[in-house]
Amino acid sequence: MSSHAIEVTPGAYTYPMLIKQLLHTPLATVPDQEIVYADKRRHRYVEMARRINRLGNGLRSLGVKPGNTVAVMDWDSHRYLECFFAVPMLGAVLQTVNVRLSPDQILYTLNHAQADVILVNSEFLAILRQIKGDLTTAKTFVLLNDEGTPLPEGFAGEYDELLARQDDRCEFPDFDENTRATTFYTTGTTGLPKGVYFSHRQLVLHTLAVTSALALAPKQGSLHRDDVYMPITPMFHVHAWGLPYVATMAGLKQVYPGRYVPDTLLKLVDQEKVTFSHCVPTILQMLLSASAGKDVDLSRWKVIIGGSALTSGLAQAARERGIDVFAGYGMSETCPILSLAQFDEAEVGGEQDIALRIKTGRPIPLVALRTVNADMSDCPRDGKATGEVVVRTPWLTQGYLHNPEASAQLWESGWLHTQDIGHIDRRGYLQVTDRIKDVIKTGGEWVSSLEIEDIIARHPGVAEVAVVAVSDAKWGERPLALVVLKSGVETTAEAIRTHVLVAAQAGHISKFGVPDRVEFVPQLARTSVGKLNKRVLRDQFAS
Asked: In whole angstroms, what separates CA 20 from the centre of its chain?
């Protein structure tokens, strides 16, 4: 049987999936919806559209052409949202710079991505001054200014002054939907950061799939047009998990908090009636512990947790405040969302409520997830048999920028390899049990560091915990528990060990999962985006 390409009528519009298409519906239906930037600015979607057009014209006036790279160094702001649209809509590439990296790493990412223009918040001028002489391609600089900072020498202008000089209408042309739209750099714990990139088509498809997954939920884990959105995952990190694109397409009120300060975040949740956010576990723990939030009503707040495992202890603490907290799963290379821990409404509040919320989740539309063994054969979907998680969706990065060897490893056998180990049950719930590099090989068994962490996190005195493998002459490796206690709480290493031993005796983990050592620490090493940095912790406590 032969197949035939669809016949296109001359003059018919083929509608390329470009980021600009996400703006049609909200501008037509909710032009007066609000966008809020901390306590500094408040305007409507119709004004956002004007500013996107002015930014497009302003960047063109600075010489930005299709294929050029425009880098942004900013906190979460209305400006960043405008760049999410205007830069790729020109056919240029938006580089979201991780401002929490070291100056040397920031320099590396800017040069590696071949940035042409840098938009920089005045708070990061000191970093720019430190690296400016070593930039190889960036020659044009624009100031993002909240503090009235004078324009530095050599800058092309200040952002809002640049926009004020431009026309409200900008011609954003059609082009190939597979054109690269964004680039950013992974925050891995080894080696130099790796550049990942996404096309217009990939970002639009990710937006549509995430929107449908959230909108199909009847209540738990849902997002709808009456929600108020505020990211608490940086916009430089995987496009704030792609949720600003979702929120804009859906026409939601959006709140951008600037720099993350717990009191400010809680104040915005309260004043702006925020109902939907996403963050790493550390941020949620910080917000729940903050004295400023004790009297804030959080019962309408829905929060996706990603980046690190959501423990049952943290989930329970959030539920006690009324928060609809649930896990999401993905990585820099996957744009990022692959799965969400959504479950049936009848199960909310039931005996499985917490257990389901902390699962890695069920795949969202268009995601093909497998767990496989070494020869790429599927593991049984019985909720027990573990293997590496591999994935296919239309929005996975096609490789690492200028790094063909690492790209080939990422896509070995035609599936993207996550380097995570997990199992899938009959209902499609994925549970990641560890990173391949973090699993503890002890006593002839593979023991999950995440499972031990979850058990320790249930101890009433524990605020945070990380479990890492340390070398052992007899057993190969043994688990070491690093524990941050809650403020004002005292306990002993033996009490923590006994707590884990009870779980092992009940059959929840192997007896080899009971740590020989428990160390109490004031804080845990983390990456620039808040994930546990287990490589640093292993090196720090190896002896």
From this structure: 22
Q: Is 448 helix (H, G, I), strand (E, B) or coil?
A: coil
pLDDT in tens, 113-155: 999 999 999 999 999 999 999 999 999 999 999 989 999 999 9
Number of domains in the chain: 2
Nearest-5° angle of CA 79, CA 83, CA 85? Answer: 125
Active-site residues: which are they? 186, 333, 441, 446
Contacts of 201 (CB under 8 A, 6+ apart): 16, 17, 177, 178, 394
The secondary structure of 28-96, three-state, reads HHCCCCEEEECCCEEEEHHHHHHHHHHHHHHHHHCCCCCCCEEEEECCECHHHHHHHHHHHHCCCEEEE
Running DSSP on this structure, what letter comes out for residue 362? E
| Angstrom distance (rounded) from CA 19 to CA 17 | 7
15-46 pLDDT per residue, tens: 999 999 999 999 999 999 999 999 999 999 99
Quick one: tokens of 452?
Answer: 């031990």
Q: In whole angstroms, give the CA distance from residue 468 to residue 481.
A: 7
> Which among 340, 328, 324 is positioned nearest to 274, based on CA atoms?
324
Mean pLDDT by 10 residues, the chain (543 residues): 78 96 98 97 98 98 98 98 98 96 93 98 97 97 95 97 97 98 82 92 98 96 97 97 98 98 97 97 94 94 94 95 98 97 91 95 98 95 95 98 95 96 96 88 82 92 93 88 93 95 88 92 89 87 76
Among residues 148, 163, 198, which one ends one of the domains?
A: 198
Strand-pair partners of 183: 95, 197
Q: What is the pLDDT of residue 439?
A: 84
- Going by the DSSP 8-state scheme, the letter that residue 19 receives in this structure is G
**CATH code, domain with 142:** 3.40.50.12780
**Of 25, 31, 76, 71, residue with least CA distance to 49:** 31
* Residue-number span of the structural domain to which 40 is assigned: 19-198
Q: Which of 146, 170, 198 is the last residue of a domain?
A: 198
Which helix (H) or strand (E) segment holds residue 302: the answer is strand 302-305
Q: Is the pTM of this model over 0.70?
A: yes
Tokens of 440: 């503890």
Domain annotation covers residue 47: yes
Q: Which residues, including other chains, have CB under 8 Å from residue 298's CB and lie 6 or more apart? A: 269, 321, 322, 323
Has residue 336 been placed in a domain? no
Phi and psi at residue 284, to the nearest 5°: -65, -40
Q: How far is CA 343 from CA 257, 358, 525, in A?
A: 30, 11, 33
Query: What is the residue type of 296?
Result: V
Q: Which residue has tokens 């057009």?
A: 53
- What torsion do the CA atoms of 364, 230, 395, 433 make, to the nearest 10 degrees? -60
